[in-house]
From TrEMBL:
GO MF term list: DNA binding; DNA-directed DNA polymerase activity
Protein's name in the database: DNA-directed DNA polymerase
EC code: 2.7.7.7
Top-level EC class as recorded in UniProt: transferase
DNA sequence: ACAATGGTCC
DNA sequence: ACTCGGACCATTGTA
């Protein structure tokens, strides 16, 4: 499907999607076994703090409402807000059971009543408490490590994480970093996080061959700023925060097969205005537009689309007479090759990195003698990671992959090796595939997951 | 046990 | 009326 790209500066490892799946499997099992350490004390402290705050909010909500009710029930909440308190609901979305109480809707009436703000805040805290703060400590093993399970059966080739899902740990807001601070490195070790910068946009620029977008990446521009410059017809240096935000949303929208409605919702603007942006975007980026049309046509005639490495997704309903069903699959036809190829690049980099780490371990000058003294000094003989206590020596202070979050890899390494391995990760990931544009990876080292984001290695 | 609703991540 | 890709999980409320 992509053989025509071979002449466009792209160079691919001789490997198929199936082989990638086969090779990634033992790596995933090793990562599951290794797990990631949770600072149980810290997370329980945070939990207590937020619980107290949550109760105060609860009381304040009951007071504003003039009655007690179940805030977690959309049904009861809607009744209180839109019947008892008579808040205007005309502008808000409906669900099957009545007016939607989704945060995106409640925000529209936040100025109409004092009760809305505490509700939104209460919701946020409830979410964090019930999904992360309370359950995670209970799932940690005797060494405080969390062992997720990685799944490989998705429609685009992405990996999943479950029981617990460690791919949706909060990062946004004030509390996100607080929570991520509880994901820590073992004593004497560091976490290194390396993530691909705008990998999906780079992939689509390459799959489409769109000259403007390729140029943006090839010359190291801020791609969202550039898009903003194009959309608003200003110099790239004169782009405002807001213009860049809009452009960023449009860029993401492209990957999802955006419609004027979807974009209007995402940006809280009118559909007309959204349609203007889309029109302008596709005028400047006709290569992207052609890509979208090509994928839809391909799916219509062949019944499937493929990623760069040949992962196939069937789209049996793309010729459905039901517009809504057909259009949904059209968006999949656009998105799957992009998301799927990005996933393959990440998996390829995992395979390469696992090899690199193995070599590094075998050549390591830190031999068993040093291990022994290190172990004694650090006093952690009884809290290391491997299931088999007899293997303690060989696995402590051994760099290993422990987590992946779609465009990010996290390893845990002895601190004295952190700098070196951070560099290895960056090079390995950036060189995993040669696209027609450069691939950039940012790396950070820290004692915990949050700190890896502040520290450029 | 299951659908609906809502929310977290990339 | 509906509408932007891919996941997992908690809670409510009904069957």
């Amino acid at each position: 499907m992509w053989s025509h790209l071979r002449k466009s500066g792209i160079k691919l490892p001789k490997i198929t999607a199936k082989e990638i799946e086969r090779k990634i499997d033992p790596i995933l099992r090793q990562m599951e076994k290794a797990g990631i350490k949770l600072d149980v004390k810290a997370i329980q402290l945070l939990s207590k703090k937020l619980e107290a705050k949550s109760q105060k909010l609860e009381a304040s909500i009951y007071k504003s409402a003039g009655e007690k009710f179940n805030i977690a029930s959309p049904l009861q909440l809607a009744e209180v807000l839109f019947e008892k308190l008579r808040l205007p609901s005309e502008e808000l979305k409906r669900t099957k059971s009545g007016v939607s109480t989704a945060a995106s809707e409640l925000k529209k009436v936040v100025d109409k009543h004092e009760i809305i703000k505490p509700i939104l805040e209460y919701r946020e805290l409830s979410k964090l408490l019930s999904t992360y703060l309370k359950p995670l400590p209970a799932m940690a093993d005797k060494n405080s490590r969390l062992h997720t399970h990685f799944g490989q059966d998705t429609s685009t080739g992405r990996l999943t994480s479950f029981e617990p899902n460690l791919q949706n740990i909060p990062i946004k807001g004030e509390l996100g970093p607080e929570i991520r601070r509880s994901f820590v490195a073992e004593k004497g070790c560091k976490l290194i996080s390396a993530d691909y910068s705008q990998i999906e946009l780079r992939v689509v620029s390459c799959l489409s061959g769109d000259p403007a977008m390729m140029e943006a990446f090839s010359t190291g521009q801020d791609v969202h700023a550039r898009t903003a410059a194009e959309l608003f017809d200003v110099e790239i240096t004169e782009v405002s925060h807001d213009q860049r935000r809009v452009a960023k949303t449009v860029n993401f929208g492209v990957l999802y097969g955006m419609s004027p409605y979807g974009l209007s919702q995402a940006l809280s603007i009118s559909q007309d205005e959204a349609a203007k942006y889309i029109g302008r975007y596709f005028t400047v980026h006709s290569g992207i537009k052609d890509y979208c049309n090509r994928m839809i046509e391909l799916a219509r005639s062949e019944g499937y689309v493929e990623t760069l490495f040949g992962f196939r997704r069937e789209l049996p309903n793309i010729n459905s007479p039901h517009r809504q069903i057909a259009e949904a699959e059209e968006r999949m036809a656009i998105n799957t090759p992009v998301q799927g190829t990005a996933a393959e690049i990440l998996k390829l980099s995992m395979i390469r990195l696992a090899d690199q780490l193995k070599v590094l371990n075998e050549n390591s000058k830190i031999k068993s003698q040093n291990y022994n003294s290190k172990l004694k000094n650090s006093g952690i003989l009884n809290q290391v990671q491997d299931d088999d206590p007899k293997n303690l020596k060989s696995c402590y202070l051994k760099p290993r992959l422990i987590l992946t979050v779609h465009d990010e890899l996290i390893v845990e390494v002895p601190e004295e090796q952190a700098k070196k391995i951070a560099q290895v990760m960056k090079e390995t990931m950036e060189g995993a595939v040669k696209l027609c544009v450069p691939i950039e990876v940012s790396v950070g080292v820290g004692e915990n997951w949050a700190d890896t984001k502040n520290n450029v290695a």
